[in-house]
Amino acid sequence: MGNEPGTRQDVERAARLHLADGGSVALHGPAGIGTSHVLGGLADAARARSETVLSAEPTAPEGELTYATLADLLDPLSDEELAPLSAPQRSALRVVLRREPPTAGAPDPLALRLGTLALLRRLARRGPVLLAIDGAHWVDRPSADILRYAARRLRATGVRVLTAETSAHGQGAPAGAAFCPGPVREFAVPPAGLSELREMLGDREGTALPGWLVRRVHAACAGNPGDALEIVRALDRQDQPPSRDRPLPVPTRIRDGLARRLAGTGPDGREVLLTAACTRGFTLGLLRCAATAQPSLGCGPADGTAPAPRARLAGHPADPVTRTVENAIAAGVIAADEDGVRLRFAHPLFGCALYAGATAAERRAAHARLGAVTADRAERARHLALSGTRPDEEVAAFVTAAAEEAARRGAPDEAAALARLAAARTPARFGGRRCERLLAGAGHAYAAADHELCRELAIGAAAEADTPDRHVRARILLITAADQALSGLDEVFAEAFAHAGGAPYDRARLHYLRACKAHIADGDAAVTWAEADRAAIWARHGGDRWTEVLALSLQAFVGTLLGRTDATEPLVRALALPQDSGPVGSHNGPRAIKARLDFFADRLVAAADELDALLHRAKTSDNAEDMIFLLCAAIDVEVRAGRCGRAMAAAREALRRARELGAHLGQACYSAAVAEAAGGDLNRAAALAHESVRVADAERDLIYLPLALCLLGQVLTRAGDASAAVDCLSRARTIARRRGIVDPVPVPWPSDLAEALIAAGEHDRAAAVVDEVRDTTLRLGRTGAAMSLLRADALVRAGSGDLAGAVSDLREAAEHHHGLGLPLEHGRDLLALGTVERRRRHVTAALTCWQDAAAVFEQAGARPWLDGARAEMHRFTHVEDATGGDAVPVPQWRALTPAEHRVAQLAGDGATNREIAARLFLSAKTIESTLTRVYRKLGIRSRAELVRLHRHTGDPGNAPPR
Fold first, then answer.
1. What's the pTM?
2. With bands split at pLDDT 50, 70 and 90, how would you rate the model's confidence at 2?
3. DSSP designation for 842
4. Which conformational region is residue 91 in: left (phi greater than 0), alpha (psi within -120 to 50 degrees), or beta?
5. Average pLDDT, rounded, for the chain
C-alpha cells in the first residue's frame, strides 16, 4: 500500500482514523517496539468516546488454555447482557466464562460461534464495539477459530477488532489480521524518534536523564523503547552517575544473544570486532589496516575502501580479519551496506555490547590503532583523544585543531565534543590553554543548542579562569546556557560585572543579558528597557555592533509592551545598522522583532514575508534554536491569518525539534496548542497548554506563562468550563499587569476574559474588563483587538436585553475583522451574531450567520471552530424526541420562509422545477433560485438530498414552531 505512515504518531493517527471509519487494525513489530503502548492508546481513545471496548492480553502459557482469550474478551459482560441469546448459545458462553459447570460435550462449538456472533451484533446495535487483543500471536486455537468465524460475518456491523503482536522482520502477515472484520489495515509500528523516546523516558520515575544521555540511548537502541527502558534501568542501578566517557550498559537479552552468535570467535576475532565497535562507521579495509597499525600520532591514514567479503574468490584464502568479518556477517552480527564497502552492526546494541564488554585498556588500544589509520581528521582526533588518559599537549593540540576545523565546516556539535576531549588531555602546566579550550567548547556547544554541555564546560572554565576576560566569558556562557531559566543567576551576574570592570565590550553584553533576565525571568518591562538602553550605549562605545543591534531590538519590543510612544525608534536605529550575519539575523534580531511587531499590528503579510526569509536562513545555517523560535512566531501569524493547516505543520516541526533538543519545550508546547486550538483537536490543545503552563511555571518563564494561561482559558471557555477559564485568564492579567504590560495584544487576555466572564454569567465584571482596556486599545491603534472587545461588549449588551444594539456591534466587528483579513475572529463574530439573532427569534438570520461562520472556518481549516459552528446549527435544527429518545432533525425547515417552504415541499415530493413553477404560478428561473437558497439554508447540495431529507423528517409544513 503506497504512502504508508512514517512515524509512530503517523501510525497512531492513521489507525485511529481507520477505526473511526469502521475498519479494523492489526499492529505488529519487533519485541519492545511498543505495539502494546499504541494499542492501549487507541483503546483508551475508544473508551473516551463511550464505545464498548472488550480487551484480552493473552500470553505464551495461556496458549494452551482452551477459550482463554474468548473468556477474557467477554468476561466484563453480565448475565443480563447474555440473557437475550437463545438458551443453547447462552449456555455455551456461560460455560466458557465458567459461570455454569460444563456438561458432556459442552460447550457446543456451533452454539458458541453463533452466540458470540449474536452477542457482538447485539452490542453493536447500542453503539460501536472494539475488540482489543494485545498479543494476537498467543491467542489459543479454539478462541482463534471463533474470532476468525466472527470476523468473516461482522463486516459493516459496527464491530471492529484491534490487535497487536510481536513479529520478526519479513515474517509475513500478522496473525491478528485474520481476527479482523474488513476492511483491515496492517501497521508495522516504527521505532520511536528521539523526541518520542525523550517523552517516554521523561514519564518514568527517578532522576531526569540529561539530553546527551537520551541521545546516546536512542542511537544505541535504534529507537526501540523496550531496549531503551532496559538500558535506563541498568543505569539507575549503577553506583556512579552516568558519564559521557563510560560505555552504556547493555540489556542481558542482547548480551546473551551476541555471545551465542559469537560462540566460536577467538581473542583475535574479538579484537577485530572491538575495533569495529570503537568506530562510527567501518570498512573491511579500515579493520585490516587497524589490525597491523603501529599507533603513532604521525602515522599515515589508510583509505579503507576494500570491499566487504560477501563473495570471496575461490582459491584466495581469507586473512584473519576477513574471516572474522565473514563469520560475523553469517552470524547476523555485521551487515554490509548496499555499496558492498561500508559495514555496520546489524543492531547498534551489538557494538555497544562489544565495547562495554572490553576492559578500559582494550578500548584505549583499539582507539590508538584507529587513530593511526583513520582518514577523517575529526574521527582520527577523537580516537587519539580516547587512546590514553595521561595529559599530552601534542594530542590536545591536534584535537583542538580538528575541533576548529569542524566548527568552520558548520558542525558545532562535533566541534564541542572534540574541544571537551582536547581540554581533558591538556596538561596542567598549560592552564590558560585548557581554559581557552573549555571556553571554545562551550561556545560550540551553545551554537549547537546543547545547553547542557555548554553549561558543563563553562563551569569548568570559570573554575580555571586566570584573567578577568576569561572570568567574564565563562560567566556569560553560563548565563546564555541557562536559556529561558534565568532566575537564580544574580550571583553569576554580580561576579561577571565585578570582573568586567569598565571594559565596554563585556559590559555591553552583560547589560544585554541582564535585560533578557528582567524580561524573561523577572517580568519587569521597565528594567528591561533601561538595561537594554545601557547595553546599546556600552556596545556603541566599544564598537560591538552585534550587541548594539540586539539591545535596540529588545528595547523596541519591550517598549511596545509598555505602550511607549517612542517604542519603534530603537528598532529604526537597529534596522539602519548593517544586517550581515551572526546574531543580528537571529530570532532576537531586528528583522524578527519587526515581524513580531507587524503581527501585533495585524500587518500579517509583512510579518509572514519577514518570517519566511528568516526561516529560510535558519534552515540553511541549520540553527535549531532559531528554527524553533521562528516556527513558533510563524504559527501565531498563520493562525491569525486563517491558514490553520500551515500552522499545524509548523507546530509539529517545532515540537519535534524542541523535544529532540531538550529545550524551549514550554514555548513549543504553547505554539503547538495555539495551532491545535485553531486547526486540530481541542483536547490536544488543552493538554499542550497545560504542559506549557507547567514548564513555564517550573522555569519561571514570565514570557510564555501568561500566554499559555490565555490560550488555556480560551480553550476551557470553548469546552464549557467557564469558571476555570476565568481563573486562568485572570492570572494572565495579573502577570501582565505586574510586568507593566500596557498593550493588550502581546498578552491577549482582555476579550477572552470578558467572554469567559459572560459564559460564567458575570456580565458586570465582563463589562468592567472591556471598559478597562478599550481606550488603550484604540489609542495604540490595535483595530483587530478593539473589534474583539466590541464583540465581547456586544454580548454584554445582549445579556442586558439590548439585542438590537448587540447585533449592530457584532456586524461592525465582523465587517472590520473581515476587512483586516482575520478569518477566525470574523468567524467568532458570526457565531456570536447567530446566537443573538436566535434570541431575537430571527430564525433565518441566525442560521445564515452560523452557516457563514462554518464556511469561514472551513476555508481556514479551523476544525475545532467549524465543529462549534456545526454544533450550534445542530442544536438549533434538532429537537429531542418526545419519548426521551435521541434528537431528530425535524425543525431544519423552520429556517425557510413560507415561500421557500412550499417550493421545498413540492421538490421533496419529487416535482420538477417546471411542475412547481406551473403549480405556484412562478417562473422556472425563480424556482431554481429559490431552491438554491433552500439548499444553502438546509446545509445540503442537491435535489436528491432534499428528497431524502423530506422523506426522513416528514412534511416541512408540519415542523413544530420554536
1. 0.73
2. very low
3. -
4. alpha
5. 87
